[in-house]
Amino acid sequence: MNPCELNAAITAIANILYARLSKEEFLYVNVLLSELSKTMFSMEILRGICIVEKIEEKEE
Hints:
By secondary structure, the chain is an all-alpha fold. It has helices spanning 3-20, 23-59. The chain has two helices and no strands. It is elongated. The N and C termini lie far apart (41 Å).
C-alpha cells in the first residue's frame, strides 16, 4: 500500500465513523486512537534506544 492509498483508506474510515457515530462516541474513538498512536510511537522510540544501547555494548 503506497502513502496515497493509505491516506485514502484512513480518510474513508474517518468519514464512516463520523457519519455513523454520535458526536460523543466519535470523540471517544478519537481519544482512544490518539492514545494508541502515542503508545505505538513511544514503543518505537524505546526500541530504537534499546538497539543503540546493544550496539554500544558490543563495541565495548
